[in-house]
């Protein structure tokens, strides 16, 4: 019987892959036998991850790339197509926040720094749009492919403080749904576009916001955990099952969706 979840030999491109959430994605898909090409701006971290991931059943190749630099993206596309001839899956993992685009407890919306807001929107929205415009070309030519965008809990409901990040991730959700119809109607039902909305995970960017130096939760972290039925933060590996499903034939009739992975946060009221 065919394994619908199999991704062996699929060419999977992952952007923003050297961070806390991206690293397990690279390791997982390499272990699953996929041909993983992953990108990030931190060359030393990328090469170290390449060495580790190459022990899997598949392969892993790091390309230093800034997802906001069209020249670098095009060069990465040419390199991938020259080596593999196709792109089966694109995971747009690049994203992040900036202090100036947040509202501290003692600030108001009028303290929002528009330059930082521009930066957050550029990184999260254009950091998703620009790689998609480049790498999806291979999918449209093959009339087959899966694009998986990384949204956020803040895209689904406005969360306090993260004003810019929420706006940017909400735009990613809208782009996901738009692109679902755009690609399928013009290039066929072999092209799918979906998003994952992670709940709260400890990352390099939010660790100081959510934990004290001794590792204990801050008041904001306590509020989050009290609103999460599971009562804990997510582990990065807990995104992998949903990613595997969306990258494989198991989700062949699934497009335009946002799958929430949050321990029940979005479903919980009081």
Description:
The protein starts with 10 loop residues before the first strand and ends in a 9-residue tail after the last strand. Helix 3 (70-84) packs parallel to helix 4 (114-142) and helix 4 runs parallel beside helix 5 (163-187). It has a single domain (11-199, 234-261), classed as NAD(P)-binding Rossmann-like Domain (Rossmann fold, 3-Layer(aba) Sandwich). The radius of gyration is 18 Å and the shape is globular. 41% of the residues lie in helices and 14% in strands. It has 270 residues and is α/β, with parallel strands linked by helices. It has helices spanning 22-31, 43-53, 70-84, 114-142, 163-187, 207-210, 219-226, 240-247, and strands at residues 11-15, 35-40, 59-64, 89-92, 145-150, 191-198, 258-261. The chain has 8 helices and 7 strands; from the N terminus they run E-H-E-H-E-H-E-H-E-H-E-H-H-H-E.
Task: Based on the coordinates given, report the CATH architecture.
Answer: 3-Layer(aba) Sandwich
The CATH H-level superfamily is NAD(P)-binding Rossmann-like Domain
Q: Any idea of the CATH class?
A: Alpha Beta
> What portion of residues belong to β-strands?
5-15%
Counting structural domains, the number is 1
**What pattern of helices and strands is seen along the backbone?**
EHEHEHEHEHEHHHE
Oligomer: single chain
- Percent helix, as a range, is 40-55%
Shape: globular
Mean pLDDT metric: 95
* First and last CA, distance: 45 Å
Could you name the CATH topology?
A: Rossmann fold
Rg: 18 Å
**Number of E-type strands:** 7
Largest sheet, order of strands side by side?
3-2-1-4-5-6-7
Major sheet summary line: 7 strands, parallel
What's the number of helices? 8
| Unreliable residue stretches | none
Structural class: alpha/beta
């Amino acid at each position: 019987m065919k394994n619908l979840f199999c991704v062996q030999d699929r060419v999977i491109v992952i952007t923003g892959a050297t961070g806390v959430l991206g690293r397990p994605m690279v390791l997982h898909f390499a272990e699953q036998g996929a041909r993983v090409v992953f990108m990030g701006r931190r060359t030393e971290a990328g090469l170290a991850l390449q060495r580790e991931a190459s022990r899997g059943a598949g392969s892993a190749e790091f390309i230093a790339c800034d997802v906001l630099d069209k020249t670098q993206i095009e060069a990465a596309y040419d390199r991938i197509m020259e080596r593999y001839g196709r792109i089966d899956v694109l995971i747009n993992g690049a994203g992040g926040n900036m202090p100036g685009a947040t509202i501290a407890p003692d600030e108001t919306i009028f303290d929002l720094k528009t330059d930082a807001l521009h930066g957050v929107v550029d990184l999260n929205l254009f950091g998703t749009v620009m790689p998609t415009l480049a790498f999806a070309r291979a999918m449209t030519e093959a009339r087959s492919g899966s694009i998986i965008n990384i949204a956020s809990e803040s895209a689904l409901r406005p969360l306090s403080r993260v004003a810019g990040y929420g706006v940017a991730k909400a735009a990613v959700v809208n782009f996901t749904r738009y692109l679902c119809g755009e690609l399928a109607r013009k290039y066929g039902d072999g092209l799918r576009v979906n998003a994952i909305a992670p709940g709260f995970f400890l990352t390099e960017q939010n660790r100081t916001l959510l934990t004290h130096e001794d590792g204990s939760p801050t008041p904001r972290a306590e509020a989050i955990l009290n609103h999460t039925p599971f009562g804990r933060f997510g582990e990065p590996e807990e995104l992998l099952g949903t990613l595997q499903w969306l990258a494989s034939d198991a989700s062949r009739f699934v497009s335009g969706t946002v799958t929430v992975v949050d321990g029940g946060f979005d479903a919980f009221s009081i």
